[in-house]
Amino acid sequence: MIHPFQVLKREGTLNETVRQAFIGAYGKRGAEAFDAVLDGRVKKYRDYFVVVGNTDEYFIEGDFCSCAASRYGVDCWHTLAVKIAEAAGKYETYDMWYYLHGVDEEEEDYSSAAPQTEQ
Ligand SMILES: [Zn+2]
């Protein structure tokens, strides 16, 4: 198997060779993630990475993503996009807190709603 992050390191840029490597390894998820990074849709705030998706934007911390798919245990492309952006050094940096930028109420919903659905 081709390791796409090794290809990215070798190529040193987000070119078509790297894109094909990510598609080979991750399929559609790889294409979505790669294109988002290339489009500059990955942003780094002081507290979270934020990925602008097709219909909404999501905040990511490690393998955690705030999108619906991630909450159902699906590996979404947003977390992969952040990893690609970090490896390529291609993201916009915002010297501000995303948490204080309007997601704190949603975050409360996640933590209080999750245990109830599992009981
Ligand atoms: Zn996600």
Strand content: 5-15%
Number of domains: 1
Point out poorly predicted stretches. Answer: 107-119
Secondary-structure element string: HHHEEEEHHEH
Mean pLDDT: 86
Helix content: 40-55%
Number of helices: 6
The general outline is globular
What structural category characterises the helix and strand content? Answer: alpha+beta
Sheet with the most strands? 5 strands, mixed
Q: From the alpha-carbon coordinates, what is the Rg to the nearest angstrom?
A: 15 Å
> What oligomerization state is this entry in?
single chain
Please provide a written account of the structure.
The protein has helices spanning 4-11, 16-26, 28-38, 68-71, 77-88, 104-118; strands spanning 42-44, 49-52, 57-61, 64-65, 92-93. The protein has 119 residues and is an alpha+beta fold. It is globular, with a radius of gyration of 15 Å. The protein has a 5-stranded mixed beta sheet. The chain has one domain (4-92). A hairpin with a 2-residue loop joins strand 3 and strand 4. It binds zinc ion. Zinc ion binds at residues 58, 65, 67, 69-70, 76, 78. Residues 58, 65, 67, 69-70, 76, 78 line the site of zinc ion (ZN).
Write the layout of secondary structure elements.
Elements: H1 4-11, H2 16-26, H3 28-38, E1 42-44, E2 49-52, E3 57-61, E4 64-65, H4 68-71, H5 77-88, E5 92-93, H6 104-118
Parallel strand pairs: 1-5
Antiparallel strand pairs: 1-2, 2-3, 3-4
Helix pairs in contact: 1-2, 2-3, 3-5
The structure holds zinc ion.
